[in-house]
Amino acid sequence: MKRNVFVYAMAVAALAGCSKTETVDQSPVGAIRFDGAHISYPTESRSVTELDQSITEFQVFGQYTKESEPVKVFDNETVTKGGGGGWTYTGGLRPWIEGAQYVFAAYAPADALTSPQVNEAGYLTLTDYSVAGNQKDLIYAAKIAIGQAAGSNTAVQFSFKHLLSIVGVTFKSGFGEDTELTVSEVKVNKVPSKATFTASGETGSDQLGGTWGAASDPQSFGLTIAGITEPEGTSADNIVVIPQTIPTGGNAVEIAFKVTVTTAAGEELVSGKEFTSEIPVGTITTWDPGFKYNYVATITPESVELDYIEFSDPVVDTWKPAEDGDQDLPLQ
């Protein structure tokens, strides 16, 4: 195997719209409630703080329309899961308006966005969202509901979607057990890290509720890794990236790292050999929202240009007859 060993923050500008804020305090009867927050495509990550079914808090926007301009009822309010399993929100209870069409938009974690807003349709739209310096698992949900007569309304249940992708790297050793392999200074370079997410509808089991635009602003990300790789592989940190078509050609994303090889006796055979490999684009050509992509590098003696003692087919002497030929055996 040679050097190509791989098998593969933000500023939010929102459209304010023509809306007004309405907060009504009343008894819980007929009030808007929120129920279990379901997250689709859960991801696994070592370095990125992952959000999953166990979330206990999210932020919500909400507005309704009924023969008038949109009326805002939630403006980035916090919804929190209580000890008894119910969900409560800040700012006073809001009633359902019969016959009104509601649009709710929610996200988590709260610190993933700065000054978030929604567009005129009520959906959270991210303009020039950047993952550089903002390595957080961002989830988003949108829901449309019609206000019913008192006693007929149900709690709003969001289906959260992971808006970003996760990229990880695993290193495997192609050496014997008596050789220690150390990988260091792992970097993922030239990663387009900024794009705009335009939300346009509800989220659900199959729909993201919007689309990402083309990614730009290439950045580098440093990853850490446990000192010595094991034969079965050692994973470096993961990073969150903007969903995108994986760049190719001169813009290809690169993974760079250094390799040191040491014998069991402590003799250093290879010291900090540098590798730079492009992420392959074959069967996988895109990073899609809510999916994790892992690239595996198997480091062999050939890849670090190291010769090991080898043995070839042996040559074995043949038996030779005695020079005087056969010897007569006297009989007694």
Describe the structure.
This protein is mainly beta and 332 residues long. It has 2 domains: 20-162, Immunoglobulin-like (Sandwich); 165-193 and 217-299, Sandwich (Immunoglobulin-like), CATH 2.60.40. Helix content is 0%, strand content 40%. It has no helices and 19 strands. The strands form 4 sheets. Strands 1, 2, 3, 4, 5, 6, 8 and 9 form an 8-stranded mixed beta sheet that branches. A hairpin with a 4-residue loop joins strand 16 and strand 17. It is elongated and about 130 Å long. It starts with 19 loop residues before the first strand and ends in a 33-residue tail after the last strand.
Task: Please name the defining characteristics of this protein.
332 residues; mainly beta; Immunoglobulin-like; 2 domains; 8-stranded mixed β-sheet; 6-stranded antiparallel β-sheet; 0% helix; elongated
How many structural domains are formed by the residues?
2
Radius of gyration: 31 Å
How many distinct beta strands?
Answer: 19
Largest sheet, in brief, is:
8 strands, mixed
CATH class of the largest domain: Mainly Beta
SSE topology string: EEEEEEEEEEEEEEEEEEE
Give unreliable regions as ranges.
1-29, 40-46
DSSP summary: helix tally: 0
Helical residue percent?
under 10%
Strand fraction:
35-45%
Structural class: mainly beta
CATH architecture of the largest domain: Sandwich
Task: Describe the SSE topology.
Blueprint: E1 20-21, E2 38-39, E3 57-65, E4 71-81, E5 87-89, E6 101-108, E7 126-130, E8 139-146, E9 159-162, E10 165-173, E11 179-199, E12 210-212, E13 216-223, E14 234-241, E15 244-245, E16 254-263, E17 268-278, E18 286-287, E19 292-299
Parallel strand pairs: 1-4, 2-9, 10-19
Antiparallel strand pairs: 3-4, 3-6, 4-5, 6-8, 7-11, 8-9, 10-14, 11-12, 11-13, 11-16, 15-18, 16-17
